[in-house]
Model the fold of this input.
Amino acid sequence: MQRPIYLDCHATTPLDPRVLTAMLPYFTEHFGNPASTHQYGWEAEAAVKRSRQILAEAIHAAPEEIVFTSGATEANNLAIKGVAETCFSKGRHLITLQTEHSAVLDPCRYLQTLGFEVTVLPVQPNGLLDLDILEKAIRSDTILVSVMAANNEIGVLQPLSEIGAICHHHQVLFHTDAAQAIAKIPLNVQAMQIDLMSLTAHKVYGPKGIGALYVRRRDPRVQLAPQLHGGGHERGMRSGTLYTPQIVGFAEAVQLGLAELETEAKRQTELRDRLWHKLRSLSSIHLNGHPTQRLPGNLNISVEGVNGQALALGLQPLAAVSSGSACTSAQLEPSHVLTALGRSPALAHASLRFGIGRFNTLEEIDRVAAGAIETIQSLRQRIL
Ligand SMILES: *Cc1c(COP(=O)(O)O)cnc(C)c1O
Done:
């Protein structure tokens, strides 16, 4: 039996075979612990060093500023709780966005239970942060602003350079969750004045279980309290034996993504726009999020008179897509992201997310468009 076409690249992506090839020797031959001081350790250490260099260059950072973690969830936790713990004598106020991933919102909620204050800013109906609202929210006791680079549901890209400039002007640290953005849009921690940035490999055709936190070392030097204590790896910020094969795969994935960034962005934008153009031929279909300032492979729609879960289910034999965010699709509550855009609960429930990726073809998109139109029409008829 043929499996459905995979169109859920914001949940995770398939491992690129080239990435697997790069990883394999580090499971077997070069299995050493990078911290060991003998031949086996040195081989692993050299691979980690090379990978760290590649990842640092990808975001215009220095290798010493890359702290490996198990993924973006851990990187977000380390950034937010780590800064809160070291900066609480300066202030106890943090700022974030309503549309953030739960891996940012939940650490913030946790800090509230410890006595920190968190301002959760609204977004405009197109999903973008209003910079005036950000500037007005910054107080003398604000220690951190956390605003994501690219949204995992609606793909909207926040104006990082402008946010960085505002934070820098007010001497507040700027953290960004770039899990969806790395190697898909250009990222530059210098030009964008980013102090902390969370990354992950598995959204960019790398392995699951590996990510990193960029931690600025100069102007300003960011001090971070570790959240995992132990052997003092990663300059004391994150203990635990480095996972060499995953680190090698992470770097390979990012390198491939950067090499193909422009051609893939163009190709995926064309596929996305083609899909949207076909779907919008139906009446009462709405695009969620900014029409152009979004990830190339992201299309998020609300279909009036149709339940998103029913639609995703109806599409199942043909395509694997998600209604709302994958992390919350088990819940019956409408997506907090769509609600933040001002969508009614009915329209938020009627949403569908297409995540187009590197391995999707034009022929697949056309088949999915035809199948989705058919499914929507038949679901609507059933309601009438
Ligand atoms: C996937 C994702 C995460 C979580 O990353 P993991 O590496 O799976 O922990 C965090 N933030 C965003 C925006 C994501 O898309």
User: Anything to note?
Assistant: The chain has a mean pLDDT of 95. The two ends are 34 Å apart (CA to CA).
